[in-house]
Amino acid sequence: MCADKTILVTGGAGFLGSYLCESLLKAGNDVLCLDNFHTGSRKNIAHLLDDRRFELLRHDVTVPLVAEVDEIYNLACPASPIHYQLDPVQTVRTNVQGALNLLDLAVRGNAKIFQASTSEVYGDPHVHPQVEGYFGNVNPVGPRACYDEGKRCAETLFFDYHRQYGLDIRVVRIFNTYGPRMRADDGRVVSNFIVQALRGEPITIYGDGSQTRSFCYVDDLIRGFISLMDAPSTVPNPCNIGNPTEFTMRELATLVLELTGSKSQLVERPLPQDDPTQRRPDISRAKKYLDWEPAVELREGLAKTIAYFEADLTSGEDAPKA
Ligand code: NAD
Ligand code: UDP
After folding, report:
1. Which of the 8 DSSP states describes residue 235?
2. How many helices (H) and strands (E) does the chain have?
3. Which intervals hold domain NAD-dependent epimerase/dehydratase (predicted)?
């Protein structure tokens, strides 16, 4: 990785952002971490605060910003359905107004800019596995639309700024990612199942649990982010980054029970509206152009994540209900 750059990471105090800040610092860059602490936490970045190359800025991306930076990674946005649906208008604003503000900042400073997009742009996909050329199947008026359409509009803006202003853009479509530092009350399936299993509470399967997801361990994902940002500008955008091994939610629950040794029962709860029935990335593009593929299997990544939650829940510091 090229070092000695000044890099802005929005959403830097979040789950993924904190790992990204860490990796960029380790490589010898100055990192400006911006966050409004909506879903992020100081705890995630506490170990970075003493690093003289790290700076923390409490700011909301919906408000324009002035900063001199070489690169921008835009990760600011709540990622869990329960959090992004709490204030859907703010979710759209964060995605759209936030993207506009950061793109304007990139144009002014001629900075390279990276967008954390999502597999949700494919909606409930009819093409499986999902290739980047698939336009998706999104309900524009449903409860997930604030996130899905917000991210789709952000992609549109990135591509228009590229065409109109010649901006160097990188757009990654992230598939479900998990690991230590997820919040116990995050609401996403991996943290829910682990926290429920460790507490001996029922494991909540939404619907019949036959829907699928493909889970990527956080270290693999961050390696993919940086490879994409550092790749030549001829690398095709957007680029899927995710682990292509697909599991049903019932299979995930069974694996979590096995790895935790928990006796929790599986209980069915209503399937949320517009919940995608299947999801799995086609990663041919990342393999070909970035020489990237995931290295951590679900069993191994879950074991590390379970160890994190065991320590986190017993520390009592941050033990909200899942
Ligand atoms: P997260 O909720 O832990 O992190 C998001 C961060 O953005 C938080 O620190 C939050 O406080 C901050 N934020 C939210 N709104 C903001 C605003 N208006 N201004 C400034 N900061 C704001 O989620 P995450 O899992 O770390 O996701 C990071 C990014 O990756 C998000 O953009 C998300 O959409 C995307 N993504 C994540 C996944 C995944 O599986 N983790 C999948 C697809 C896409
Ligand atoms: N899910 C579940 N139980 C939970 C939380 C989620 O069965 O306690 C399901 C959810 O309905 C979805 C899948 O797990 O089918 C992944 O959900 P998550 O919120 O983690 O991510 P996303 O739906 O955004 O992919």
Report:
1. S
2. 10, 13
3. 7-242
- What is the identity of the amino acid at 29? N
Burial 144-158 (b: 16+ CB within 10 A, else e): bbbbbbbbbebbebb
- What are the distances in angstroms from CA 209 to CA 128, 249, 257, 259, 278? 18, 5, 15, 19, 11
Q: Express each pLDDT in 303-316 by its tens digit.
A: 999 999 999 998 86
Q: How far is CA 241 from the centre of its chain?
A: 10
Q: Are 35 and 10 in contact (CB under 8 A)?
A: yes
Domain parsing of the chain, residue ranges: 6-315
What predicted TM-score, i.e. pTM, was given to this entire model? 0.97
> Ligand 1 centre from 262 Cα, in Å?
30
Complex prediction ipTM: 0.98
- 33 CB-near residues (< 8 Å, 6+ apart): 9, 12, 13, 17, 21, 45, 48, 54, 55, 56, 57
- The DSSP bridge partners found for residue 217 are 178
Which ligand 2 atom is at minimum distance from the Cα of 176?
A: 25
Residue 200, C-beta contacts closer than 8 angstroms, at least 6 positions apart: 262, 263, 264
Q: Do strands 212-214 and 246-248 pair parallel, antiparallel, or not at all (unpaired)?
A: antiparallel
Residue 321 scores a pLDDT above 70: no
Residue 239, token pair as written in the block = 């680029």
Question: Is it true that domain 6-315 has CATH number 3.40.630.30?
Answer: no
**Cis before 129? omega within 30:** yes
Q: Is 147 one of the annotated active-site residues of the chain?
A: yes
Q: How far apart are CA 37 and CA 59, in angstroms?
A: 9
* CA–centroid distance, residue 184 to ligand 2 (Å): 14
